[in-house]
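Checklist before submission:
- one chain only
- standard amino acids only
- sequence pasted in full

Submission:
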Amino acid sequence: MSTTQISAHIPMDLKVRLERYVRMSGITRTHLIEQALAHHLSALESLPEDAIVPARLVLTPESAERVLDLLDRPPEPTEEMRRLFDDP
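Returned file contents:
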């Protein structure tokens, strides 16, 4: 199998986590990145798009306020939710 080199800019905290993991596990950075990328692409290819939850959500000030409001005062569960959680 032929290989190629890629390059990416990542946040410093992610690089620190990567380095810590490879030191603890003894595997190489190359192997870890190759496996992570293969698993991630496999999930993206096999799962429906709406099943993928992004790692980072960006909220507008208005949507952030709505989230905080819902956390402070959650709505009553719907009849469907009650059935879902009550069903043995």
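Reviewer check: Residues 12-86 form one domain.
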